[in-house]
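Here is one chain, start to finish.
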Amino acid sequence: MTTATNPRVLDHPARDEIRLEGVLHALSDAVRLRIVSEMAREGTELSCSHFDLPVTKSTTTHHFRVLRESGVIQQIYRGTAKLNALRREDLDALFPGLLDSVLDAATAQESRLTQPDPRPAAAEGKP
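Its structure:
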């Protein structure tokens, strides 16, 4: 892991230090998966304040730290803003297809959970 000597430089694992189990753990939380999905959709660096999350500021900080320490994102300071970038190139090189598969599955799940059940009421045993 790169060790920060400047308090404005954050520790990140080097590419060869990123582990599958750490990435899967980071992506297993709904809030963190939401963050990563939005970052992938936007395709650019985003500030922490860009995300409208249903958790406290301290919990948001925790989620970003887990993502950073697992190697899923990179965080850098630009002026007073902390910007977040998805480490897609590193993740795709280490675990080909993993990120896209997880993001596709998350999209399919979201769609399934937010769409009304297309089955008629009688199919559910209702009159």
